[in-house]
Structures are given as structure tokens and as C-alpha cells.
Fold:
Amino acid sequence: MRVFFIFAGLSALVACAAPDMEPAPRIDLSVQSRAISSAALFGAPRPLPTERSNFQIAEDILELGFRLESGREIPHFSRFEEPVSLRLSGSLPPLAAIETERLLFRLRSEAGIDIRRVDAGPAQIVVEFVPRTEMRRLVPDAACFVLPNISSWDEFRAAPRSDRLDWARVIEREKALVIAPADSTVQEMRDCLHEEVAQAMGPLNDLFRIGETVFNDDNFQSVLTGFDMLVLRVWTHPSLSSGMSRNEVAQRLPRILAQLNPRGTRASANIPIDPLPTPRAWTVAIEEALGARSRRQSFSFAQAALRIALNEGWRDERLAFNLFLAARFAPPGEGVQALDALATAASIYGSRPGGSVPRAHVEMHLAAQALASGQDAIVLRLTQSAIEPARRSENGALVATLMLLRAQALERTGRVAEAERLRRESLPYALFGFGSQEAADSRRAEIKALIQ
Structure:
């Protein structure tokens, strides 16, 4: 389930506390004619292949596939056993059909899944777009989610707590409903499609300890990654079938992975194995930090989680994300500690499989800090490092923000024409990511205010 996060604003950056730079977008549907698809903006998908060992991937699949986000165990392996049809329903946002077709093409070509879109009639997967205000009445914190055994929002509203909606009771999947906001940016709509359709087809859990996946509530990855496509290819492998136990799946995974991912048998021994499992107390503290209604509360929860992470001795994505949150929510008086936390998080991500994308998010915050303190050379170095991973992960909001930070530094160093060109080039990414000219202008003004 992709969730809403309550983040602090850019104004806190002036006090050297790490800000959020991806606020809830202000949607202006009058810009529909200017909307651009991810294919037109980013070109052909370029997912990085996973660097994880097959042994680690097997452990990942078991934890992703046999546990719900709540921590409950899933007793049986489940999937669709027949070719899958998908239908769009509700008030479709701009480019919904185009983004869906691009996703389904990737699922067919990269994950080997037999899935097609239909325009009418029954479908195994229905994606229904619902106004955000209506969604929040039933599921306040969810940006989008997927449910089993129903095909419409009305069915869900009629019995939102029905046992039919319990994924742990599903043995073979027959139908699933994805709920996504009708009034969203193209990027948010596209992100929801990727994560929720993938979960309708594959594993249902999200894990903070895997940085190279959309199945992670840090929301750093925007689109399905090479790791995700491999997991989905394993999930639909003919050696597996609905109703299998965890042990039965575990026995088959080594042979399946050796066949599908031979490079995984040679994965670097220098990458440490992720310790399992993650203590529930840490996950709860992180979720509380993300959902708290005040910066002070968020920082308190982030610090509580950090104590657990340090006691566990982690040096993986969980510690990095925890440091990132502690820095982002740090009070103004702890700017130096926040900067150190961000630098450490960037270093950890840089050492982890597929860590270039989460590292780019951290580098964006570091670049904002450097811009505010007049260190333009550092801004240029950090944005140059981060822009390519941001593009490769098809994150328009992140690309636009990095380009605007870079433009501000270029302007201050006298490269005015280059800065203006970069600002013009950032606009399509900003419209894709933020949803309106107003939101794009607001982001530019926030970044300009960092040097005043």
C-alpha cells in the first residue's frame, strides 16, 4: 500500500534542519493538455539489474510473500493461475490508459507475465480511480491500495471489514481491486499503478530493508525495478503454484533463481546479508514518524527507531532511512547533527545494492543544505551525481528539484544563461511530478528563498 506522508516544509532548511522537498501536489486539471507521459519524458525504461545474491533474494521473496505489512503471517502462496486481464474504471486521470499500457508491456516483456488490458466486461484486476476525499473517508492514510475478491469501490464501501478482503485467507487469486486517486499528478498515478498492480500479481509485503524495490514504504523508488521484475518472474514460475506452504516455496527457490538469475550465484560476497527479521517496534516507530502531525513528534519517533537500529547493529537501508528521517525532522538547533546524519545515510546507500536511487534523494537534501550555506561547488557536484539515477527511476519531482537547485547554484556563479536553460528544461518534469504550473513555480520560489 502506497501511503501519504506528512512532511515538514522547505522553510525549515534555513535553520539547517533537513526539509521535505516533495510536498502534496496542488492539482490543476486544466493542465491536462500539457501533461506528458513517462515514456515521452524519460524514454525507454532502463531498470538496473539487481546486485543481490540469489541466497538473499530467496530470503527477500519469502519475507515479501508470506507476511503482510501488519506483521501477520500468510499461510499459503497465492497468485493468479490463468492469464490476467486488467480493466480501468472510475474517473480516469490524464494519461491513465497510456501509463497502464506501458506498465503492462513491461510486465509482459520483463517479468514474463501474460497480462492484457480490456476496455469492458469482467477482468481479474480492476483499477478504479476514486476522488481522494472519498478515499480518505475509509482509508485516511493510503494514497492507493489493493484488495482481493472484489471488483469495485462500491463493493468495498458496502463491507470494508469483510473477511473476503483478508489476503491471508486467499489461496488462489481470482480477482483483485486496485484503488487509486482520480485527482492526482501523472507521477503519483503512475507510481500507484506500478506498486499496486505488482502487488495484485505478486508479493504483498513492503520491506524497509530493501532499497532497490517499490515494495518499500520509503517511496524512494517510483517504478518497478530490476529486482521487482525478477521477483515477479519468480512468483509466476511454473514450478510454483497456489496453495504451497512457505517451506514448499523455499525448497524450490534456489533452482528457480539459478535458472532466472545466473549472475546472482556470483553476486559480490562483500555485500552483507540483511539480518532478518526487522523488529516490529522499529517498523512501528518509523511509521509513527512518517504519520505524525507535528515535526516534534516525528523527530521523537525517528529517534526512538534510531536507538533500536543502533542496538541491532544495522548498516543497511534501515539505518540509512532512519538517519534520513532523523535529519529531516531534526529541530533547528541540531543542524550539524542533521547534516552528519544525511552524509552517513548517503554513504550507506552508496554501498548497498541498487542504492543509487535512494542516495539521490539524500543528495537532493544535501544539495539544498549546501545551497543555503553558499557552497555552490558542492551543489553542482551533488546534483550532477543525483540527476541520472533520478531520471533512471523516472521520478519527475526529484529530477525537477535537482535541476532547480543546480540552476540556482549556476546563476550564483555567473552562469546565468545555463541556469535559465536548465529551469526551462525542468518544467516538463515539474508538471509530471507536481501536477500544475503553480506547484512548479512554488518549488522554484522555495529553492530561490534558500539563498536569501
